[in-house]
Write a structure and sequence with these properties.
CATH architecture: 3-Layer(aba) Sandwich
CATH superfamily: Nitrogenase molybdenum iron protein domain
Radius of gyration: 15 Å
CATH class: Alpha Beta
Number of strands: 5
Number of helices: 7
Structural class: alpha/beta
Shape: globular
Helix content: 25-40%
């Protein structure tokens, strides 16, 4: 078992074929974000965005975090979305968006590729925590290909 984060990331990067590369998005929000119509999106320079840009298609280019509308998110046909519900919300963000007409247009919503995640990517940036989270999320992103690892 590789304990070193860098080695683990290199292994994933080397073993994920170009055909298996999926478009991924990390987004978050609360009921307030639903009302405003803008959601927090981690970009390619954020902690997880920069990591997943190395092993997936991560086209979210901006500063560390940005606000995006669902219409802007819809312009990129993601294969997987990780949704983080912020603490002030009593209902998961993905459930809050269930009746939103733009949200329902996302192919991934119909394909059940929206995954609620714990408030993970803002709780720490140590390589051990990032490696553990990467190991957990890579299973979702590449699913059937994980046996290669």
């Amino acid at each position: 078992m590789m304990k070193n984060f860098g080695d683990r990331l290199l292994m994933y990067r080397d073993r994920i074929s170009h055909q298996a590369c999926k478009t991924v998005l990390f987004m978050g929000g609360s009921q307030i974000h639903c009302w405003r119509g803008k959601f927090i999106v981690e970009t390619n320079v954020g902690t997880f965005g920069s990591i997943f840009a190395q092993i997936a298609n991560y086209p979210w280019l901006e500063a560390n975090l940005t606000n995006m509308s669902l219409a802007e998110i819809l312009t990129v046909n993601s294969d997987t979305i990780f949704v983080q519900t912020y603490a002030q919300s009593k209902m998961p963000l993905s459930l809050q968006l269930t009746n939103n007409r733009i949200w329902r247009q996302l192919t991934i919503v119909h394909n059940h590729q929206v995954y609620e995640v714990e408030q993970l990517w803002h709780y720490g940036n140590g390589t051990r925590m990032i490696r553990l989270t990467l190991d957990k999320l890579i299973l979702i992103i590449i699913g059937k290909f994980i046996n290669e690892f």
